[in-house]
């Protein structure tokens, strides 16, 4: 046994002495050129797509693995990469490779042959408002025609399960408010509360609506707002207090205790000052901030990072500029009111929700040009 | 070579050297780990290079060990049915026996053929040495069981196992080395056992080790040495030469296989340097294997496999746990160290230094079974396993003493000193660091990656290389799983296949075990030695279900 052990030991030691430098060289990106038998520097490309499992061709040769994958041992210079996925348009690009460096093509958004558009409701609406991430409110001048839509929760890693939209009227037909008219709808980012300014039989009312409850809990807080404020706002972290802005004063109104406090502007929570005004929502950076959804004129467009200098634009659907559109990250869906019918539609933009993102070096990441420049 | 094998009562210069050498293993382990962390943060390319080189060396070592684990297991399997008694009797008339055996044929029975070939080689060596052994009737076995808190439930199965031996019981002397500070129930149990077995063996004696002896620490070696001294008087009184006595110092839970003492006697007889040798069996932990948590089963099976692998390399083999040796050698080296915890390995080094390198360990392909560490609940068992591994890793206390001896020695060849010194040092270093590097530190260059490193091919290639190496490592684990299933005791249990499947799945805990029950206790032990916070002897918890 002893002699065998010695022989095997020396064989293993020899293998190690040969393999170790080769392995370290390979780790550093050096490979032996089979033609010249010399060590050459190589680079690699990391490719991940949305959706994954796309075939990758580099200089016409199919890579062994589907996306996400690393294409290794590439000699420096430009390489032509084509990505194919059934049901999606091909993605093609000339990518520069630098020796010992990694080029990262992260989360390439593949464009479907046909956008998967779903009609959610036949009814016409005035506008849509997103509350608490998964509650969409479709507004109408008549209160009984305002609907709320609950979307299913996002699925952990991909969105293959069918998304269900649960539609309910905000006010039941028997509600005392049912025949009133909507004047204004106010909301705060991510807050499950909305404030409705309504007109009922020529009387101005303010309704504080808790959408977390089922059916929604509606509380008339008109007594706390004897005069009509120019602006009302609150933050999701404190849904008990709202701030009413008047030309000369600001009031903090505690809805829970039904109390009104004069508020100096200095003490106003900083976040409220920077809160966006109620302009139509029509611009979203999506897909790990690599791509842009934006409305230009009546077209909702997707700008992708296909090219360094010339981002590619794809028309998705038509929608009126006065209405909101919302991108819901959990399901990768865009909600909008159709330009012609004002009905509610959804289109899935991101078919996959990546959970584990590799840290992408800024210097290497292929970027869109400044997003503002294409507005 | 006359050498004071202890860290105590040294001259100032020796004490200083001892202290430096105590610091060395811990400092190197911490230096390696912290150095790699530092490199991972500030010089990730350097760290990645070292880590890949380490990964490769690790997998080569794993594959190499797995190969010899399989060979060693095969040899254990081959020798399972060997008739040691007839071999012992044959050696009595060696030339005739050798001639008879040369002409034996075994046809297609390759197992017997291999066993016979090994047997012939051993006989040839013995014949060539002209150092013939005493006749089997003159060979005596001294078996010492140190006892401090083990009850009758633990001790009696051990004695019963000796009672079932093929070898003549009337050539066996059993000594219960009882600590004076043992509780009365333990003392009563020992007395009852002595009474019960005194007429079965040549002698069954209890030797009480005083609670306080100047110059001794509260360690097992002190108790065993006290018993062995009494045994020396006993053998002198009976005019039995020490050269004819083989001593086995067993943990109280040691249950030997029925062939153990015949196999031991055979190896003692065929070994030309039998008076300068220890005999190392393969320890398995089967006594209570189905009564302990899964992680404890895996840890102890791993220990058995380590010994199986080591058994293939007698040149570097060091005694471990329950083992046997020449009583003459034990007396010559003045018994076990009385102030060291790791008495099992220390006695080898003590003898190796005493005989100027002319001492070796003979592997024996026979098993003896012990208890897996077990306590009242999962958490207590985990703590006990951790403490036991820390105690094993405390074997690092031998390093400074052995190194001092090697520095002083002029008779042990330099190559041997370098070879064994390196093995001792490297063994402890990799024990304390490998688990951490494989499981945690190896990933740090990726986790701490900054822009420059993250934009390099290295960032993407290191995980790919690591994954390939770990996949190969998984293959080795699969082989280990199969062998562990073969090695399990063949006793009847309910839902046998279901339980075995569960045991196979338990091996998936290896990465966790590698850190928590191997690297961490080893690093802990080295750190304590480095800081001079010496470990005290702690008796392992061992419980068995009744019935």
Protein described:
- The complex is a heterodimer of chains A (375) and B (547).
- Chain A contains two helices and 29 strands.
- The longest helix of chain A is centred in the N-terminal third of the chain and has 26 residues, at 2-27.
- By secondary structure, chain A is mainly beta.
- The N and C termini of chain A lie far apart (78 Å).
- In chain A, β28 and β29 (344-348) form a beta hairpin.
- Chain A folds into two domains: 2-109, Immunoglobulin-like; 117-374, no CATH class.
- A four-stranded antiparallel sheet of chain A has the order 5-4-7-8, with no helix packed on it.
- Chain B is of the alpha/beta class and 547 residues long.
- Chain B has a domain at 136-387: Spore Coat Polysaccharide Biosynthesis Protein SpsA, Chain A, CATH 3.90.550.
- Helix content of chain B is 58%, strand content 10%.
- Chain B has 20 helices and eight strands.
- Chain B has helices spanning 12-42, 44-78, 84-91, 94-102, 110-129, 152-163, 184-197, 220-237, 260-270, 294-311, 327-332, 343-354, 378-393, 398-408, 414-439, 444-447, 451-454, 457-487, 496-506, 510-531, and strands at residues 140-147, 172-179, 203-209, 245-249, 255-256, 277-284, 323-326, 360-369.
- In chain B, strands 3-2-1-4-7-6-8-5 form an eight-stranded mixed sheet, sandwiched between helices.
- In chain B, β1, α6 (152-163) and β2 form a beta-alpha-beta unit.
- The model of chain B has no long low-confidence stretch (mean pLDDT 91).
- Classes of the chains: A mainly beta (375), B alpha/beta (547).
- The A-B interface holds A 1-2, 4-5, 8-9, 12, 15-16, 19-20, 23-24, 26-29, 42-44, 46, 70, 72, 100-102, 104, 359-364 and B 45, 48-49, 52-53, 56-57, 60, 63-64, 67-68, 71, 75, 312-315, 449, 451, 454-462, 464-465.
